[in-house]
Structures are given as C-alpha cells and as structure tokens.
Amino acid sequence: xxxxxxxxxxxxxxxxxxxxxxxxxxxDEFGKIRVDDDSPGLALYDPGFVNTASCRSAVTFIDGEKxxxxxxxxxxxxLAEHSNFLEVAYxxxxxxxxxxxxxxxxxxxxxxxxxxxxxxxxxxxGFRYDAHPMGILMASVGALSTFYPESRNIADGxxxxxxxxxxxxxxxxxxxxxxxxxxxxxYVYPDNDLSYTANFLAMLFKMSERKFEADERxxxxxxxxxxxHADHEQNCSTxxxxxxxxxxxxxxxxxxxxxxxxxxxxxxxxxxSVLRMLRRIGSKENIPAxxxxxxxxxEKLMGFGHRVYKNYDPRAQIIKKACDDVFExxxxxxxxxxxQELEKIALEDDYFVSRKLYxxxxxxxxxxxxxxxxxxxxxxxxxxxxxxxxWLSQWLELVQDKEQKIARPKQIYTGARGLxxxxxxxxxx
Length: 429
Ligand code: CMC
Fold this sequence. Notes:
Radius of gyration: 24 Å
Shape: globular
Bound molecules: carboxymethyl coenzyme *A
Strand content: 5-15%
CATH architecture of the largest domain: Orthogonal Bundle
Strand order of the largest sheet: 1-2-3
Number of strands: 6
CATH superfamily of the largest domain: Citrate Synthase, domain 1
C-alpha cells in the first residue's frame, strides 16, 4: 500500500502524487495544483481549523472518540490522582517527570519568583472597581514584558527558562490581585512557606489572620483542577499563543494573547456561563422547557459539546468525583441537583446523542469553584493559571521547531475589485 494520495484535477486532466506522512498531507503539495502558470495554486478552505494540523507536537495526546487525554504520554487520571500541579507543570515543560532533585529545584525556583514588581500593583489598582478580573489578568500578563525586556531574546535557552519560571510563579499573584481589586480589598503578598495552590488561596482570601491556612482537601481539589486544565493540545488559546508567538515576540505577549482567547464564552468562559444557565433554569421542573429551547436553536447547553471529544470528556469524569470531596467540606451546592438532572436528560435525548454532545470540563467545574467561594468572574482566571504551563510548553516547542513559520493563513477573497475612488464631494452630494 503506497503512502500517497493520487489526485486528478478534472479542470486540466493532470494527475498528482501527494505523499502521506503521519496520517496527513502537506497543504503546500496542493499549492502545486494549478490550472496554468498564471493561476494561483489550489488552497485548502478550513474555517476554524477543523481538519488542519498546524504543528507537530509531543506535549499532549487526545483521542476524542475514546475520551483519552495524556500529558507527555501519562494518562490524566493517573496525574490527577498521584501528582501535583507543579510536578505536572515540570512534566509539560521538560517532557518528563522530575527526579527528586529536579523537583526540589523547580519548586524552589517557582516559589521564589511569586512576587511581582511593586509598579505592577500600582497599575492594577488603576482598574475600575467593576473591571473583569480576566481583563486585568490579560493586561497584566502583557505588561510583564515591559518589566523583563530581556524576554525578547527568545533564542537563548536559559533566558527562556527564566521567563517560564517567572510566568508560572507570578500568574497566581496576578490572578489573586485581580480578584482583590474587584473586592476592593488590599492585595496580599505571596507566602513562600505555602505550596503553590495553598499560597494562591491565601492571596485570595487572607484578611487579618497572621497566616491563612486553607483546608487541605480544598487545596487538593483546586490543585487537581489546575492539573486538568494544564494543557489541551491545539485549542483556541494555545493556537493564539502559537500564532502570536510565531512572530517571535516575547513569551509574555504571546501568553497574553492566550489569556485573551480564553476570555471568550466558547472557550474558558464556558463554566461561568454554565453557572448562570443553571441559576436561570432555577429548578428541575424547568429543565424540559429549557432543553426544548436548546433543541430549537434558541441557545446552547453550556458545558456540553467539544470540538475534539465525541465522548465523555475524561476531565469531566474526574471533576465529577472532585465535587464529592469539595462538597464534603463546604456542603452541597444546590445547583448540583439541576446539573445532574440536566446531564441525565441530555444524555438520553436524541438531539445530544446523535451529535455526540457530552459534558465537557466546564460542566461541573463552576459548581466546585462556587463552593470554594469564587465569584463566576474568577472562573476563567483559574483556568488561565492552570493552562499557563501548557501555553508555555507549546510556545517552547514552537520556538525550537525548525519547521515553524510565521502564522499567516490564506483567504478566499469575496469582495469587490478595481473600483475607482469616488470623491466625497460626489458621494455626499
Ligand atoms: N448545545 C446545543 N447544541 C450544540 C452544542 C451545545 N452545547 N454544542 C454543539 N451543538 C450542536 C451545534 O449546534 C451543531 O448542530 P447542527 O449540526 O445541527 O448545526 C452540532 O452540535 C455540532 O456543533 P459545532 O458547533 O459544529 O461544534 P464545534 O466543534 O464547532 O463547537 C463547542 C464546539 C465547544 C464550541 C460547542 O460544542 C459549544 O459551543 N459548546 C458550548 C460551550 C462550551 O461548553 N464550551 C467549552 C468547551 S470545553 C473547554 C475547552 O476545552 O475550551
């Protein structure tokens, strides 16, 4: 069996041999197919990159049909159960699990870069009282590039490492301060005696107590949620990081683009929308009418469906379990009942079954976040903190990949051509 595709262009009768490698064909091979020397080569039209691979990557594997997710080859279920977020971050960035010494050095590096320049605090305080924390985070991450101008030297491996450490370390500080800003509360400095996730909770919730110590079960649950969000191959925000990073800009600017992409309701903003939806439904009796509305195309069932998973999202399974642990400490979120009933009805309904629409990571995560006392505006910030090592590992891969070029898709032009400019004196007469 030849690893190639034979294509006949019926416009010219020409036949072309297109090689197949790794289950893909190179789009530029199609560029060679043209009617004559003066006409453009054949382009591939793929809005939303539904069937276009933009890179080779060894970071994350997903089998959407089977519901499998692996970071660097390790199943998400095992990482969620046995690892912690900092170790997973190391795994994503470095490609393998750390030895004891490597882990200790990594933990030390991250812990001792959690502080940010005082001027960062100054400009964060300048945001309006009702500024969305994701907007603040996006601006602050981008602004870090001005504090570390050496980050533009992306060709230097040590320099890249330094910025990666800084970004993973400072993200919780920026996220927590964005929250404190909205609350009108004083910002809390990092406590380097605490673990990554416990320190984040302390920066969020500490008031006058000398030391803030969150319940270990809640720290563990949030740490697991960070792990589940740490990477997801070429999703919208990672594609944004890679696309912006392909211009060889510094990593803070590239990651700020990722934060911007994540802000949208179809991506990271979905869990916020799930909670609002559950609240609007209000009680189990209203579910059938709501489902009818979804089926009529009035709105989407938020937290359902995925571009890649055509099966139960494995992250949703783990989160569903984490709900029990969190609710044991905080008491059950009354919206859980509505969510469970909604899931049950949707999974039996032909509309959802035939389209392979299953709960995704966002369906239950909002319920946990709410139980942990986060307001909905903070949900996407939590996602961004978790996703940061993924963005950075993908960025690292991009800048070291000799095959990568500046991202620049083609278009199919549908507008007018060759018009003559009409002066305003004639048009406005
Ligand atoms: N509710 C109702 N119908 C849906 C939904 C939904 N949540 N999702 C998809 N569909 C329908 C869609 O209308 C279409 O129907 P038809 O074939 O009749 O036109 C069909 O299912 C295929 O959907 P699609 O829009 O072509 O799928 P997509 O791959 O472009 O979109 C998605 C994926 C996640 C944007 C979409 O499923 C969606 O909007 N879901 C709700 C938002 C959400 O939960 N987002 C979080 C995604 S997981 C977090 C992450 O990894 O970023």
